[in-house]
Amino acid sequence: MAEFDLVIRNGEVFDGAGGGPVAADIGVKSGRIAAIGKALAAGREEIDAAGRIVTPGFVDVHTHYDGQATWDSHLEPSTRHGVTTAITGNCGVGFAPCRPKDRDALIRLMEGVEDIPGVALHEGLAWDWESFPDYLDALAARPRDCDVAAMIPHGGVRVFVMGERAIAREPAEAEDIAQMRQIVSAAIDAGAIGFGTSRTIAHRTADGEYTPMYGALRNELAGIAEGLKRRGVFQMVSDFVKEDDEFAILEDAARAGAAAASFSLLQADPAPEKWRSLLARTEAAAAKGLPIRAQVISRPVGVLMGLEASMHPFSSTAAWREIKHLPLAEKVSRMRDPEFRARLLSDEKSGRHQLLTYFKDAWSKFFPLGDPPDYAPGPERSIAAIARGQGRAPEDVAYDLLLEDDGHAFIYLPLFNYSHGDLGAVAQMLSHPLTVPGLGDGGAHVGAICDGSATTYLMMHWARDRRELPLGRAVEMLTRRAADLVGLHDRGSIAVGKKADLNVIDLDRLAIAPPRMAYDLPAGGKRFTQGARGYAATVLSGVVVSRDDAPTGALPGQVVRGRQAA
Fold first, then answer.
1. In sequence order, what are the residues at sequence separation of 6 or more whose Cβ sits closer than 8 angstroms to the Cβ of residue 392?
2. Strand partners, 528
3. Measured between alpha carbons, how far is 540 from 232 in angstroms, rounded to an integer?
4. Which of the chain's termini has less CB crowding within 10 Å, N or C?
5. Helix, strand, or coil (residue 67)
């Protein structure tokens, strides 16, 4: 009889501690790592990892699968990129707690903030819950290819307690704060791993209104943080316009009851050096014993523009509105008609897209994405540079790019983290010891952004190609460091007794496929998905859920309830 359920042999093992590899076999039994060593006894199933690296499964601390996880057993694209644990409830949006009368309000909040079609949410959400504990039970009822841990969202809590007063963004009274704290405390007891909120003006409802939690006062957030009882993380996104006041909210939360606090850190064109002062504040907080961490993404946050996407440079024109309802092939046919082309390009002068206006018609900020996707294009690859080289107008070049690959091609706009046309800021943010990889937003922005592959990009670009991160450090960031932030200490490392979440990776072959549009959301809604090459196997709780970059059909994923002991 086999001694182990699974043995991974002959791999170069990176254990998640940040060091170099060790040649070893890994034996798995009952979903846990049972042995690490040479020439282990037989396994009922075996994987030959010769010439490959073995890492812990990746922990993605910033996703928005709050809805999708209730109707879909496959949390793609994240699970195509080595993710074995996904954290939902970020940015204060989600679907519990929620009274029946408030369902539409929470759907419109998620639709506006995270660009998930409201029609898909109306069709897909079963709403067989009202409280947050009931929501966790609903998640647990569905098998899946990834573990899920959930934070309780500020938007849902505020609307549940304050109703229309929350939607009108009225200040919370002492009784409101006490009730919100009680709801968060009960959620923590039921297994929530934290609380998420948003304070950015960019987050709006589907009606264009500010979110119910926008501008909530410090006393409200500190009062809610008490309900975390040192067992939950406090997550926040903010513009940090009033930097002192906004960062003080994170410090308040860390003092009041959060086990840790985290915030989104990006380089934005209007203030391209602000990230430096925010990291300095994070360091100062750490010196005071306050566990605050910055979430960073391994590349630009990039808007994808295309005929299938939510937007493209000509999607505000009258001519486009005539054909936007047509199937893709018919759109392409119409756009190849010279008369239609002339009319649309003429319309573009008066129907200029808002992002072109925002960047002052700087076509130098827009690039062909390409195949393989280029997420750090040089200035010579911009639409402006191509147009100059060809003696054409940039609008003509953009028009032709949209028609490439029979209309499946995309124009790439690095919206954040590319203010100076390079990844210099990203390199410095990633190398900081108080940052954690995140912000891939898997499950969100389904028609405009596809950054769920950022885990693969970190390994491929920064560790393998650029070698600016030691490979062991890159693995540590995606595994143990991420798991520690949210208190999931049973995973993120390869050690005896740890949960057997593992990746077997052919590092030389590791690559990201071009994003593609799938039409598989409820009600036929569309969403970006994106594959990878080089994941020889992904193992979840000792079960192989992916082999050679394709799902096996196994669905051992569970809901993770609460922090584990360190």
1. none
2. 517
3. 24
4. N
5. coil
**Alpha-carbon Rg for the chain in angstroms:** 23
Q: What is the DSSP string of 275-341?
A: HHHHHHHHHHHHHTT--EEEEE-SS-EEEEE-SSSS--TTTTSHHHHHHTTS-HHHHHHHHTSHHHH
Location of structure tokens 């704290």: 181
SS (H, E, C) 328-348: HHHHHHHHCCHHHHHHHHHHH
Residue 517, strand partner residues: 528
Q: Hey, where are the domains in the chain?
A: 4-58+499-551, 66-300+419-485, 303-416
**Of the candidates 169, 293, 167, which has an alpha carbon nearest to the alpha carbon of residue 235?**
293
Q: Between β-strands 53-56 and 4-13, what pairing exists: parallel, antiparallel or unpaired?
A: parallel
Of 100, 39, 27, 109, nearest to 67 by C-alpha is: 109
Task: List the chain residues with pLDDT less than 70.
Answer: 350, 565-566
User: Helices marked H in 146-217 — which ranges?
Assistant: 154-162, 164-167, 174-190
Quick check: helix, strand or coil at residue 120?
Answer: helix
In whole angstroms, what is the distance from residue 155 CA to residue 111 CA?
13
Structure tokens at 280: 């300095």
Residue of 448, 199, 460, 420 lying closest to 301 (CA atoms)? 448
pLDDT value of residue 565: 67
pLDDT digits 0-9 by tens, 407-456? 999 999 999 999 999 999 999 999 999 999 999 999 999 999 999 999 99
Residue 412 contacts residue 369 (beta carbons within 8 Å): yes
SS3 for 401? helix
Strands 147-150 and 152-153: unpaired
Which helix (H) or strand (E) segment is 481 a member of?
Answer: none
CB 278 within 8 A of CB 264: no
Give the whole-angstrom CA distance, residue 57 versus residue 75.
Answer: 14
pLDDT value for 352: 77
Q: Which amino acid is at 37?
A: G
Please state, in angstroms and rounded to a whole number, the distance separating the CA atoms of residues 520 and 525.
6
Q: Select 4-58+499-551's CATH number: 2.20.70.100, 2.40.10.10, 1.10.10.60, 2.30.40.10.
A: 2.30.40.10
Number of Cβ atoms within 10 Å of the Cβ of 442 = 28
Q: Please provide residue 508's backbone torsions phi and psi, each rounded to the nearest 5 degrees.
A: -65, -30
Q: What residues are paired with 173 via a beta bridge?
A: none
For residue 129, what are its two tokens? 């819950």
Residue 542 DSSP class: T
Q: How far is CA 173 from CA 18, 219, 220, 265, in A?
A: 47, 10, 8, 31
CA distances from 156 to 115, 138, 526, 552 (A): 17, 17, 25, 36
CATH 3.20.20.140 for domain 66-300+419-485, yes or no, is yes
pTM of the predicted model over 0.85: yes
